[in-house]
Every structure is written in structure tokens, then in C-alpha cells.
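Quick one, C-alpha cells below. Sequence please?
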């Protein structure tokens, strides 16, 4: 009995020594046509797996089981298992899906189809297309309200944020923003939507209730030409106190007081920063840097970059599983 107990204990210890990550970070490599996976313990690459052509926007399901990938040149949304990285299925999409969002209840997915000026709504239970909603020219950015009732799309050429009602699947408001809007992010309390404008060089803050523009945030970095400051990805902390904006070829992430809209700091990251994602506890921020082919890890409390991790070719999107 003693020998059996010792053997059982050894087996238990061996199992406990195997990798068990609290969460995973997934990075889409646009030119590499693959996904790089980082662990949450040491922020190191633990796997890479092939996906469709030109993967850009990615998202994780609310339950953490599935990864949704915009395979832009395949004109489809691909679904993968976050534990095994196995391909699960494809979802219907119009041409050139760029970015997507998943509803908070995990039942619907919305994708921007850049080439045909549509937002595609997909039922994730049946895998069927629910609607194709006409929007402006070159749609890209996708946001969704915390209650899932309102979807926001940004059209790069029309320079608008389009507000879409979940139930009627109709546009309820159009808000003019600055040139080439790329991303839309709601505050966690649903009070505001922040829209980045890549060529305009601004972030427009929109009141969610009135659909009126409340403020425009501008950026100025010593030694950087204004035209090189190109806002793209945006993330706002759940407590509503801080916002982070990726500034593209400026190679910086702006840190903003989300209540006063004051720019507090600029964090130097890798080259051509695209998208951002928080860790589940929001202690870390991950940035994809498309030219330096790496991910920068930001310690949010310290306000500094603590690590750079090489990933695949031209990293673009980033998504994190819940704990």
C-alpha cells in the first residue's frame, strides 16, 4: 500500500508540474498566415498554428473555448479550439472580413466586410448568417455595447461611426468622425464610445445616449512628425479611469485619463503598433507591432514596457482568453 501511495503521489506531482496557464494570449500574424500563442506565466511563445490567408481581427468567445479569426483573403471567419488549436469550423462572411466582435452573451458575431461595405451578423449557435447590413465605404472597426444591444461599425472612406440596433439590424445613427476611422471601443459602463482616426490623428469620444461628439483627443510627441501619429487600436480599463491608444508608426501607446481626456504619457513599444488587449486582471497590456514582428508587454500599474516577445510575420490582432 505504501508503494502504491508513493507512486500515486509521484504521478500527481508530475501532473501538477505540467504547464497550466491561467490564460493565453493569441496573436494573428498577417503575413505569416498563422497564430502565435503566448503563456501568461512568463509571456513566452508556447505554440504556433497555421490558419487561413491574411489573418487580421481575432476574438475569443466569452467562455474562452473558441478563437474566431478573420481570414481576410479567404473571405471567411475561422473558428479554432483554444485548448488544442484544432480547427472547428468556418462561419459565413462577406468579402475581406477585417475586424469582428462577439456579443457579451456569446450568441452572435459581427464582422466588418471591407470589400462589399457590409457588416455581417452571424448566429454562433447555428453558424448561419442572420443579416448583411449595408454601411459606409470600407468598413473596418467593430464595437459592441456592454449590453449587446448596439453594434458600432467604422467606415474608413465615409469617415463615420455607424450605430446598429441588434434587434432591428438597422442603422439608428451615423456620426461623422475624422479621416480613416479604424477602431471603436465602448467604456465598460456603456456611457461613451471612443473611435480612432488613423489619418485624422485623433480619437473621437461619442456620448452613447445622444450620439453627440463630446471630445476629440489629439496627440503630440516630441521628435515625431504629426503625420506619423496614426491612432488605431483602443482599449479602456474596466474602471473607466485609463485608456490606451496604439499610435501606429509613431511606435508609441498613448496613456490617457479616460475622464479628463488628458494624455498622460507615451509608452515606447515596437515598430508599427496595431492592436491592444488587456490581461483578464488588466494588470498587463499586450501590443502587436507589425514591422518589428513582436509583442510588447506593458505593466499597467508601473506604466512601463517590461518585455518584448518575437512572434510571427507582421503581427496584427491580439486576443486573450478569460481566466
Amino acid at each position: 500500500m505504501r508503494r502504491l501511495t508513493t507512486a500515486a503521489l509521484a504521478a500527481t506531482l508530475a501532473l501538477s508540474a505540467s504547464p497550466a496557464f491561467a490564460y493565453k494570449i493569441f496573436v494573428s500574424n498577417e503575413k505569416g498566415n498563422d497564430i502565435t500563442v503566448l503563456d501568461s506565466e512568463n509571456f513566452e511563445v508556447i505554440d504556433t498554428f497555421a490558419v487561413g490567408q491574411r489573418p487580421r481581427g481575432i476574438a475569443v468567445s466569452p467562455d474562452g473555448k473558441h478563437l474566431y479569426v478573420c481570414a481576410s483573403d479567404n473571405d471567411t471567419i475561422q473558428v479554432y479550439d483554444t485548448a488544442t488549436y484544432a480547427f472547428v469550423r468556418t462561419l459565413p462572411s462577406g468579402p475581406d472580413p477585417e475586424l469582428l466582435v462577439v456579443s457579451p452573451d456569446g450568441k452572435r458575431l459581427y464582422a466588418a466586410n471591407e470589400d462589399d461595405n457590409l457588416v455581417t451578423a452571424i448566429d454562433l449557435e447555428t453558424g448561419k448568417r442572420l443579416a448583411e447590413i449595408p454601411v459606409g465605404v470600407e468598413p473596418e472597426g467593430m464595437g459592441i455595447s456592454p449590453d449587446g444591444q448596439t453594434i458600432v461599425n467604422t467606415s474608413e472612406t465615409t469617415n463615420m461611426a455607424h450605430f446598429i440596433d441588434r434587434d432591428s439590424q438597422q442603422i439608428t445613427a451615423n456620426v461623422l468622425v475624422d479621416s480613416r476611422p479604424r477602431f471603436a471601443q465602448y467604456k465598460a459602463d456603456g456611457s461613451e464610445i471612443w473611435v480612432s482616426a488613423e489619418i485624422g490623428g485623433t480619437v473621437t469620444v461619442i456620448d452613447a445616449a445622444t450620439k453627440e461628439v463630446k471630445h476629440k483627443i489629439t496627440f503630440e510627441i516630441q521628435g515625431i512628425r504629426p503625420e506619423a501619429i496614426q491612432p488605431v487600436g483602443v482599449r479602456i480599463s474596466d474602471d473607466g479611469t485609463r485608456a490606451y491608444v496604439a499610435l501606429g508608426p509613431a511606435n508609441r501607446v498613448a496613456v490617457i485619463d479616460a475622464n479628463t481626456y488628458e494624455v498622460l504619457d507615451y509608452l515606447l513599444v515596437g515598430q508599427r503598433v496595431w492592436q491592444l488587449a488587456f490581461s483578464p486582471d488588466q494588470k498587463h497590456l499586450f501590443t502587436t507591432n507589425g514591422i518589428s514582428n513582436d509583442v510588447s508587454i506593458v505593466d499597467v500599474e508601473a506604466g512601463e514596457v517590461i518585455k518584448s516577445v518575437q512572434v510571427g510575420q507582421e503581427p496584427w490582432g491580439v486576443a486573450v482568453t478569460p481566466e
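The chain is about 5% helix and 50% strand. The chain has a mean pLDDT of 94.
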